[in-house]
Design goal:
The complex is a heterotrimer of chains A (170), B (327) and C (199). Helices cover 38% and strands 0% of the residues of chain A. Chain A has seven helices and no strands. Helices cover 18% and strands 45% of the residues of chain B. Chain B is built from four helices and 21 strands. Chain B has a twelve-stranded mixed β-sheet. A seven-stranded antiparallel β-sheet of chain B has the order 13-15-16-17-20-19-18. A two-stranded antiparallel sheet of chain B has the order 14-21. In chain B, a hairpin with a 2-residue loop joins strand 1 (50-58) and strand 2 (61-72). Chain B starts with a helix and ends with a strand. By secondary structure, chain C is mainly alpha-helical. Helix content of chain C is 66%, strand content 0%. Chain C contains eight helices and no strands. Chain C has helices spanning 3-15, 19-38, 44-61, 71-89, 120-139, 142-152, 158-165, 169-191. In chain C, helix 1 (3-15) packs across helix 2 (19-38). Chain C is globular. The chains are: A mainly alpha (170), B alpha+beta (327), C mainly alpha (199). Chains in contact: A-B, A-C, B-C.
């Protein structure tokens, strides 16, 4: 069962399998594993918990919540349509969002397109870490970067956040 | 390297026959639209006071940060604080950038100016921009109740990414930006989810949370002062069209015994950096990395490690990396 | 399917009355949301309450989620509004409209101070979790550690990892699962010590 939880987390299942899988996840043990696996992912990304979990408390409160029932969601609309949150409203929030397409990273296979000799395959296959000083030195020269003020440095976290270990190899 | 636009207009006025002049004027008019738009957006980002929340998306990853920006006495101050993800704070104090990582007890200090910005882009870069990107005003929209203008820079070849920008009608400030891959799919998005323009920003609001770095922290400082522009003895033999060299020099980077050659190329919208450093360890860290619109490729050549990074597709940075040679 | 589609499938089921599907989403995002809110709500004792309230508000607002944005993006917005309303209700800040107005700098100046509001126990637990995960990662065989790093930190799909590691997808699946189980073996005792913290 835990292996199926692992696959579900990563989306490695078909829509058809979903219902059956969710039935087996009803147990507390399954929920604990799902939560544990996600805690591992968060810890690896440098986002450990800062509070005790609220999961159980939410579940308890949900028992007495009126069950939400919504009509089947329509296919995602591609035109932007969002409402900005009303000011200081304590009622259920008007949702703010924007059209977000499925953002796809090019696969490593995309690098193979230029048709380089087979000898480069090993190098292509290896993921490297970007030296942070390189990235900072580079950021200064892209004209489009200046449009976002310090915004471009947002990319730093994804690329260059120091690891959990305090001793940073330089 | 940087020549005023005025000189090219002078040339046109003196010799060109009527048709030629008209054609050139038409081209410059198109280029001017893009340049005008870019200049206005750059100026707004630099000279307005604003505070807001930015949401940054790469694939399924969403990261939000709080940004505060102040322009005072011709100097730019800004502060970027992570709202989720690993704790991090980036503070710009005019020409200096400081990045604080409290979990790692680390602060990086870098010269942090944007050195290649509109409207002072070189003529070559401006020409590249109009030759290799089609600039179109796509339409008007509304974001947060404010009218915005939507523009696109469509690449004319497969060596570049496309860009879509939403800018505030009243001020020109960029409110949302998307990078689009070769298939026209978004791979990176930057957007304000709330924003107050012309807010009253106090100087204290853009100061670091650690005015004095705690003694048990490590400080990494890159060499102070500007990069000295000089020939490095390296060149890119087969640079893709449209990229002009805008900087070449050596940098003394932290943790590296020897200085690193740094060459920068730009097509007017994005840039590509080539770093060449002497290899000290036996293991060759060659390979690639991609984060949204940024691609990095490094490869070993003799006793050097060549790293190319840029806001261009992976094939472009790789092609460049493989054609770096000595002069 | 991808990560986003899994979220959408869970939301769809929650919208059809399956509360457990919503609980799976809570278990997935509670740490990230808690961290976000801890930077906006200064009192550590109150962060949990606001986090819980944000999730309940999200549950009630499910009918209005139409799937044209990622679930977390939608959830995050609700959380921010919950925090704002909370601060207003506590009398800490004057209400301001969210939107692009010309007015005073907005209510979250405290977010300029980069410190998570965590109770000492929560902070300690967070550090212990990080240390345990680190140690367990170091003990993993290279192929397992690489697989889980590419998945969790680099965000690659199974197909992409199979391409990078030059192995079949089944092997990727197995490596990631074995890595998770190995780390979980060390982590479970830490997480299971309190009934409330079981998940």
């Amino acid at each position: 069962m835990n292996e199926r939880i692992s696959r579900l987390m990563d989306g490695d299942i078909d829509a058809a399998e979903m219902d059956g899988l969710l039935v087996t996840l009803k147990s507390d043990a399954a929920m604990a594993t799902w939560s544990c696996y996600h805690t591992i992912g968060d810890a690896l990304r440098g986002e450990p918990a800062v509070t005790r979990g609220v999961g159980m408390a939410v579940a308890r409160q949900l028992v007495s919540e009126p069950t939400v029932l919504a009509p089947r969601a329509s296919p995602a609309s591609r035109t932007a349509s969002w409402a900005w949150a009303a000011a200081a409203s304590v009622a259920a929030a008007t949702v703010v969002g924007w059209t977000a397409y499925s953002l796809i990273d090019a696969t490593p296979a995309g690098f193979a397109k230029a048709g380089e000799a087979g000898g480069m395959r090993a190098a292509q296959a290896r993921q490297i870490t970007v030296p942070p000083d390189y990235l900072l030195a580079h950021q200064e020269y892209a004209p489009a970067n200046a449009l976002q003020s310090v915004g471009p440095y947002l990319r730093d976290v994804a690329a260059t956040t120091p690891p959990l270990r305090p001793a940073v190899a330089e | 390297m940087q020549r005023a636009l005025r000189s090219s207009r002078f040339f046109v006025g003196r010799f060109a026959p009527a048709v030629f002049v008209l054609a050139l004027v038409a081209t410059s008019a198109r280029a001017d639209d893009a340049m005008q738009w870019l200049a206005r957006a750059s100026q707004a980002a630099r000279q307005l006071d604003y505070v807001g929340t930015i949401v940054y998306q790469i694939g399924p990853r969403v990261e939000s940060s709080r940004i505060t920006h102040l322009y005072l006495d011709n100097r730019e101050f800004a502060k970027l604080v992570n709202l989720d993800g690993p704790a991090r704070e980036v503070v710009r104090n005019d020409g200096e950038l400081r990045c604080y990582y409290p979990d790692a007890k680390l602060v990086r200090v870098e010269p942090g100016t944007f050195r290649n910005v509109f409207p002072s882009l070189s003529v070559e870069q401006q020409q590249s921009l109009s030759r290799y990107y089609a600039f179109r005003v796509v339409g008007d929209d509304r974001v947060g109740g404010r009218p915005v203008q939507v523009v696109v820079f469509e690449p004319k070849d497969g060596l570049r990414y496309g860009h879509r920008f939403w800018s505030d009608g009243a001020t020109g400030l960029l409110l949302k930006a998307r990078v689009l891959n070769e298939r026209g799919e978004p791979i990176e998005q930057f957007a304000f989810s709330d924003l107050t323009i012309n807010a009253r920003i106090e100087r204290s609001m853009v100061e670091p949370s650690w005015p004095v770095v705690p003694p048990d922290w490590k400080t990494l400082e890159s060499a102070a002062g500007d990069v000295v522009q000089q020939a490095t003895g390296w060149m890119v033999a087969r640079m893709p069209p449209g990229f002009e060299k805008i900087m070449e020099g050596f940098r003394k980077l932290r943790g590296r015994r020897e200085r690193v050659a740094h060459l920068v190329y730009s097509d007017g919208l994005v840039s590509v950096s080539v770093f060449i450093e002497p290899l000290t360890s036996a293991a060759a860290p060659a390979g690639f990395m991609q984060k949204g619109g940024l691609n990095v490729y490094s490869v070993k050549q003799d006793d050097y490690l060549i790293t190319v990074m840029g806001e261009t597709p992976g094939a472009t940075v790789r092609q460049i990396a493989h054609s770096v040679t000595r002069r | 399917m991808g990560d986003r589609e899994v979220d959408h499938e869970l939301v769809l089921r929650a919208q059809r009355g399956d509360k457990r599907a919503f609980e799976l989403l809570v278990a997935k995002y509670q740490r990230k949301l808690g961290r976000l809110l801890s930077r906006l709500v200064r009192d550590p004792a109150e962060v949990e309450d606001v986090t819980q309230e944000a999730f309940i508000k999200a549950y009630r607002a499910l009918p209005s989620f139409r799937g044209d944005s990622a679930f977390y993006t939608w959830l995050y917005r609700i959380a921010i509004n919950t925090a704002k309303n909370y601060l207003v209700a506590m009398g800490r800040r004057a209400p301001t409209s969210t939107g692009f107005d010309h007015e005073d700098a907005e209510s979250f100046e405290d977010a300029e101070q980069l410190r998570d509001s965590a109770t000492p126990e929560a902070e300690l637990l967070g550090k212990q979790i990080a240390a345990t995960v680190n140690r367990a990662m170091e003990r993993l065989p290279d192929d397992l550690r690489t697989a889980i790093t590419l998945r969790e930190i680099e965000g690659l799909s199974y197909e992409e990892i199979a391409s990078v590691m030059n192995c079949p997808i089944g092997t990727v699946r197995s490596r990631i699962f074995r890595a998770r189980e190995s780390i979980a073996a060390d982590l479970r005792p830490l997480l299971g010590t309190d009934e409330n913290r079981r998940w």
